[in-house]
């Protein structure tokens, strides 16, 4: 059995580097120089404190902070030579957009009125396709042909059924539903 030394030189950086340092980089515009002398610029989306890898995002539109179209770059921690923060302050627009990235559209929070409208529109859309649809006794969900339940916020991701064929077909119908079903009837 070998004995371990407690010197700081042998400890992994995760034990010696302050996590607040890593968190302080998130959402900031940085320039990273790697061992091959390449410079990578972008906003820090996240940092892995164990591998010290950094995920950078940048808009594909020059000088834009709109991440509708973006490029993502993973910089391995072992190749990072230097990190320079280009903007000390976090832009609230960048933070807001980052909070919405990589989340399903259904993660948006709806109020009761919006949920009622979405439920009504979806019910009309499914009835237009001659499917038997009813509102659950508690009024919170839709039941299709006694075989599938659609939970709030009434998206293709919130369908529940043990019948894979029905599940697939209803999801496709929901995906193809126009934004304004009432006007399409």
Summary keywords:
185 residues, alpha+beta, SH3 type barrels, 5-stranded antiparallel β-sheet, 4-stranded antiparallel β-sheet, 6 helices, 9 strands, elongated, disordered N terminus, Gemin6, Gem-associated protein 6-like, AD, Gemin6_Sm-like_dom
- Residues in helix, %: 25-40%
Counting helices, strands and paired strands, the structural category is alpha+beta
Largest sheet: 5 strands, antiparallel
Number of helices: 6
The overall number of domains is 2
Distance between the termini: 77 Å
Kindly identify the CATH topology of the largest domain: SH3 type barrels
Order of helices and strands: HHEEEEEHHEEEEHH
Beta fraction of the residues? Answer: 15-25%
Rg estimate, integer Å: 24 Å
Pfam families: Gemin6, Gemin6_C
InterPro entries: AD, Gemin6, Gemin6_C, Gemin6_Sm-like_dom
Protein name: Gem-associated protein 6-like
Domain AD: 92-182
Molecular structure report:
The chain has 185 residues and is α+β, with helices and mostly antiparallel strands. The protein has two domains: 8-102, Roll (SH3 type barrels), CATH 2.30.30.100; 107-184. It is built from six helices and nine strands. The chain has helices spanning 13-16, 19-23, 92-100, 112-128, 164-175, 181-184; strands spanning 29-34, 39-47, 54-59, 70-75, 80-85, 133-135, 142-144, 148-150, 159-160. The strands form two sheets. The chain has a five-stranded antiparallel beta sheet, with no helix packed on it. The protein has a four-stranded antiparallel beta sheet with strand order 6-7-8-9, covered by helices on one side. Residues 1-5 have low confidence and may be disordered.
């Amino acid at each position: 059995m070998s004995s371990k030394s407690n010197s700081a030189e042998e400890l992994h950086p995760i034990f010696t580097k302050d996590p607040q340092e890593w968190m302080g980089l998130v959402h900031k515009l940085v320039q990273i120089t790697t061992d091959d002398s390449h410079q990578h610029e972008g906003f820090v989306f996240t940092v892995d404190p164990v591998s010290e890898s950094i995920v950078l995002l940048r808009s594909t539109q020059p000088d834009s902070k709109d991440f509708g179209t973006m490029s993502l770059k993973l910089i391995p921690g072992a190749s990072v030579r230097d990190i320079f923060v280009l903007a000390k302050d976090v832009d609230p627009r960048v933070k807001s957009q980052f909070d919405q990235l990589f989340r399903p559209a259904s993660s948006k929070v709806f109020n009761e009125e919006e949920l009622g409208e979405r439920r009504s529109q979806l019910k009309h859309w499914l009835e237009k396709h001659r499917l038997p649809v009813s509102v659950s006794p508690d009024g919170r969900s839709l039941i299709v042909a006694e075989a599938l339940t659609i939970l709030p916020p009434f998206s293709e991701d919130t369908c529940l059924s043990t019948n894979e064929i029905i599940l697939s077909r209803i999801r496709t119908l929901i995906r193809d539903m126009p934004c304004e079903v009432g006007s399409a009837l």
